[in-house]
Structures are given as C-alpha cells and as structure tokens.
Design goal:
binds flavin mononucleotide, Rossmann fold, 3 domains, 464 residues, binds iron/sulfur cluster, Ubiquitin-like (UB roll)
C-alpha cells in the first residue's frame, strides 16, 4: 500500500531523511516518516501533537495569539506573502457580531506547485491543529478545508483524520476542557484554478459560480455567507502550532540573518534537474542552494532561466540564484516568491513554447469577468502560437507587451491576469531574440490556406 502510494507521488516527495529533520529546526516536517506513511492521531499526539491547542486554549487570549503571529512575521505561504498575524487582527470580532469561519485554501493548482499536497497527504492533524488555533484567534466556531478535487488521496486521509480528531475530542464541543467549541468540514472543489483566489473560493463554497468578489469588503469583514472569514493557505496554517508552542523569537531565529521573514518554508524544484522534490529550509535560503540539493541540472544541460514560485511569477536568470528566496528580495528582482517552488528551464527549451503553454493554461482558467483577461489571454496565446510556428508578424511582440500591460495590477478584478502577465513580460524582457525569431520573413504568407469548397456536395453536407 505504502509502496504504491510512494510510486504515485512523483514530485511531492520530501528529499530530506527523517534523521535530518529535527523538531527545533523543521517545524513543518519533523514528524514525517521516511516511508511516506500517514501520521495518524496516535503518532501525532506522541510527537507533541495538539500540545499547542492544549497550551493556547487554557493560557492565552486570542489577542495574545495574534500578537505572537505578528511578531514572528509569519507571511502567507499561498503566494501573496501577507502577514498572517495582521490578517487575523483585521477580522471583525465581537460577541455582538455573527461568528465567522476559518477557511483553508487547499486548492493548490498553481503550475509547478506541489507542496501543500505533501502536508495534506501525510500530516493532516497538523493542519487540523492550525485551524483550531485559527478558529480560537478569529472567534470562529467552524471551518472548511477547500480541497482541490484531483487530490483524492488527500481527501481520503483528511476524512479519516477529521473522524479521529472528533472521536478524541480535538474537534467538537469543549475542546480539551477549555469551553471552546470548533468543528471542521472538508469541501472538494470542482477543479478550477480560479477557485484558489480567496473570494472565488468563498463563492464556490457557497455553491455559486466561482467568480472573484470585489474587495472591499474583504473576507475578514464579510466572507462566507456574509460572515467574517479568514482564508489561509495550508502551509501557513501548518506553521501556526509550532509558532505558538515555541514563541515568536524561536520562529524568527529559524531564518536568522537570511531573511526578515520568519521560520522555514517548504521549498521545491521541478523541471530538468536531477532530483525534483521538496525540502523544508530556513526562509531566505538561496535559489542556488536549492538547485544544488536537486543535484544540479540533468547531464548535458545548462540552466537558462527559472520561475521562483509557480507559473504566475516572473522568470529570473542564473545570475539571480544568489538571491534569498523570500518575498521582499524576489520582489526587488522584479518577480514574486509566489509558492517558493522553482521551475527550472534548460538551455535546450524554447521560451516561446513554454510561455505559450502557460498562457494557454491561464486563458483556459480565466473566469471571464474582465475584458483584458477574458479576451487578452486567448489573444496572447494565439500570437505566441504563431511565433512558435515561425508565422509571427512584425509588431506581434509589441502587441504582446501591450496586452500584458493591460493585464497589469489594478486593471482587473483579481490577480489572475497580472499573474499571467508576469512570465510573458519577463520572458520577452530577457529573451526577446527568441520571440523575434518567430517572426516570418518579409513576403511570407502567414494566412491559413482557405478550405477548398467541394461543389459536388449538397448545402447541408457542406455545413456539417
Ligand atoms: C488565480 C489565483 C489562484 C490562487 N490559488 C491559490 C491556491 O491554490 N492556494 C492558495 O493558498 N492561495 C491561492 N491564491 C491566493 C489566495 O487568493 C489567498 O491570497 C491565499 O489563500 C491567502 O492565504 P495566505 O495568506 O495564507 O497565503 C490564488 C490567488 C489567485 C489570484
Ligand atoms: S482577472 Fe481574470 S480571473 Fe480575475 S476576475 Fe478578471 S476575468 Fe476573472
């Protein structure tokens, strides 16, 4: 059973042995086993599991929990890097207000991203513990785990873990004798990338079409069913128990001088390297160290470019490998840390084809609400397809740049279109000559041949 699951799990493998992972240095993964088996309730509790819930519910106020998260500088691991403590402090609270929800974003559909899957499939109780603490701090009595539909193994594991936690009294009424009630439900999405955008997630959870909602109001003011709701990524919520158990200073020290962002991060790498996979490393680890851990590029290949954190981030070059992989440093270099899972591009890969493939994904996943996204992305995909076939026309590159500029921040309802524009603009910036090679020589007829009309067929047949 375990062997076949390991074989199925392709990229989402932790590449650090259990002997390399300690509670003091690897708060997310130290409990994981080398055989990839699920950490069930008994094993989780034996490994200090639910100790943070017991400690916090009896000794700390929700305000103290939020202050600790702020000081620790836990930044959201879903891609945006927003401070979890600040987000939790902005959620409307008060006995006179309707109680809200804690929502876990487990939609993980970002191209090149496979980190939440590891935690969901092997360490479900860590997420449940983080969500209980989120409920306590945000005055919520109920939460939902919004799970990507294709993660069927995670759904199975989570369903079992929720039953275990409920039977043992970690979910339900009067948790650990504290008087605090909290329960959780698992909700599987219908398999659309846009459901990962937090307000589209809420619409989808409510059974509506998964369009993003206009903000304000933010989910913390009016979220699921109009109640204050906090939406956090799986990895963010999984970081919470250790922060509260060991304190803000301990968490800050994990990243130390490397970064102002606290803690560790599940970094990963995919593409033409020797070993794809995941590593839990201090926040601010350099890209070059990650590439070394992956064994470098496959034999005979050289690194040409890399995406730092999923398909909606901007390409960087080999010379950027010395940068700390944290939110501010990567933003200063013109990209985004995103999910922190690197996609490497080798010298024998075409940037035009890579970007065409990404834009095809983003075009297909647009919810269709804003014109620059709904119409601009398929248009960009078509232009890139022509360049890929060597059938581009003079002006196509400039047109692509104009389309991308129209998709920039603030021009659309959500961050889908700006995210789609990032790999396109950065690829043109760094590899313009490759795009120019796709422009057909002067005099070249790039129009498709008209379909010949068969006069001998009847009108009905012809239109079929
Ligand atoms: C198109 C799009 C897709 C997104 N997909 C995800 C996702 O799969 N998982 C996720 O955690 N955040 C995703 N986000 C970010 C969420 O909107 C939100 O910022 C995040 O869940 C907040 O959690 P965090 O603060 O813990 O990072 C997406 C955003 C956009 C615009
Ligand atoms: S940017 Fe795209 S995905 Fe986002 S709301 Fe507009 S059309 Fe929908």
């Amino acid at each position: 059973m375990t062997a076949s699951r390991s074989a199925l799990r392709y990229h989402s493998q932790l590449r650090q042995a259990a002997s390399e992972r300690q509670p003091e240095t690897h708060p997310l993964t130290w409990r994981l086993r080398d055989d990839g088996a699920v950490i069930d309730l008994d094993e989780y509790v034996a490994k200090d599991g639910y100790a943070a819930v017991r400690q916090v519910l009896s000794h700390q106020s929700p305000e103290e929990v939020i202050e600790t998260l702020k000081t620790a500088n836990v930044r959201g691991r879903g891609g945006g890097g927003f401070s979890a403590g600040v987000k939790w402090s902005l959620t409307l609270k008060g006995e006179d207000l309707p109680r809200g929800y804690v929502l876990c974003n487990a939609d993980e559909m970002e191209p090149g991203t496979f980190k939440d899957r590891l935690l969901l499939e092997q360490l479900p109780h860590l997420l449940i513990e983080g969500m209980i603490l989120g409920g306590y701090a945000n005055n919520a009595r109920f939460g939902y785990i919004f799970l990507r539909r294709e993660y069927v193994e995670a759904a199975r594991v989570l369903t079992r873990a929720l039953e275990e936690a409920r039977a043992a009294g970690w979910l339900g009424r009067d948790i650990a004798g504290s008087g605090f009630d909290f329960d959780l439900a698992l909700h599987t999405g219908a398999g659309r990338y846009i459901c990962g955008e937090e307000t589209a997630l809420i619409n989808s959870l409510e059974g509506r079409r998964a369009n993003p909602r206009s903000k304000p109001p933010f989910p913390g003011q009016s979220g699921a069913w109009g109640k204050p709701s906090v939406v956090n990524n799986v990895e963010t919520l999984c970081a919470v128990p250790a922060v509260l158990r060991h304190g803000a200073q301990w968490y800050q020290d994990l990243s130390g001088e490397r970064s102002n962002d606290g803690g560790t991060k599940l970094y990963g790498i995919s593409g033409r390297v020797k070993r794809t996979g995941l590593w839990e490393l201090p926040m601010g680890t350099r890209g070059g160290e990650l590439l070394d851990r992956a064994g470098g590029m496959r034999d005979g290949l050289k690194l040409k470019a890399w995406l730092p954190g999923g398909g909606s981030t901007g390409f960087l070059l080999p010379e950027h490998l010395d940068l700390a992989l944290d939110f501010d440093t990567i933003a200063k270099a013109g990209s985004r840390l995103g999910t922190g899972l690197l996609t490497v591009v080798a010298n024998n890969q075409s940037m035009v084809s890579l970007v065409r493939n990404l834009e095809a994904f983003f075009a297909r996943e647009s919810c269709g609400w804003c014109t620059p996204c709904r119409d601009g992305l398929p248009w960009a995909e078509k232009l890139l397809g022509a360049l890929e076939r060597g059938e581009g026309e003079p002006g196509d590159i400039e047109l692509l740049e104009r389309l991308a500029a129209d998709q920039g921040p603030g021009k659309t309802f959500c961050a889908h279109a700006p995210g789609a524009a990032m790999p396109l603009t950065s690829a043109i910036e760094y590899f313009r000559e490759e795009f120019a090679e796709g422009i057909a020589p002067p005099g070249w007829d790039t129009r498709l041949d008209p379909v010949p009309v068969d006069e001998s067929r009847g009108a009905d047949e012809g239109t079929r």
